[in-house]
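Annex B, item 7. Sequence and structure tokens for protein A, then protein B.
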Amino acid sequence: MGKEWRAPSERIRTASEIPIEVGLTDEDAIPIYMRISDKILYLRRLGMTYTNIAERLGINPWMAKKAAQWGNIQKA
């Protein structure tokens, strides 16, 4: 038998080596507390309580507090 055919050596690229860029433009992908944080902070500056804000926006008070905390961190 003669020489057997052999493919040239080439490095195998795995998925982790292929650069990928993805933009998050879907508004549904952004958590609610991030979307409403500016509104929560504005209403708090007007003197509303977290309970009143939550009732007006249709969320629970915990979410209103989380949004305010996140908004304050972003402003710092």
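Protein B:
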Amino acid sequence: MSSVLFHQQCALNLLKVKFEPVSKIESPNPGKMKKKYNWSSHLLNFISVILGVYLAFYVDARGKAREDRREAKLLMQSMVNDLKADIKSYETYQIPFNTNYQEGVDSILTFLVSKNVEGIENKLPTILQVENYAPNISIYNSMKTSGKLRLIEDVQLQKSLSDFYDGTAQECISKNDIQADYFLDEVMSWLRLNTDLMQMKLLPDRELLVLQNTLMIYQSLVNQKVRQYGLVVEESKALQEQIEGVLANH
């Protein structure tokens, strides 16, 4: 075959080649170009994370609740112990002592009215024996200040605690202070000016009418305090019983 014929044959063969547009050419292995996304697996992982976080919060909350109940129980038991100690102190010493003190003040007033100087002098030492006692409110005040009263879930008990410690106990403290202040400011002032405190004898120029008027007011303050002591004991016993009832069901 001549060279001319060879070149002509090659040209014809080239004309027979079919060309495709570039845009229509497909990858020889399209499966390797696209990655299938497993949505179900990722959803399960997400749900597992959410449940894990929720479970962690739940366990923490349960632990905190147990700790709060334990602390509330300890605090309530401490209040019961304080109430018992207060009741014992009032019943065995404070009320009997202050009742006798009342009688001593009454006797001095009786002698003043009758102008019995010897009787007054015999009773004067008793008036110096002032004894005051207030309920222990430290635990309640600490719980109130720190916000731990919320640990006591019984609403009625919360109210009873407030009524006693913010009401009755504070009234008792107030009556103690009023009596003590009046004793120092008025009674002792008269005694310093009108008696020989070493011998507990009235001075010749004493003012008995002033003492009589002073002791009439003082007598009223002492009586109010002793009545308040009785009320403290009554309410302390009721509160103790209520707290112990809550502890029994705690």
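Comment on protein B: Helices lie at 3-15, 39-113, 117-127, 138-146, 155-194, 208-248.
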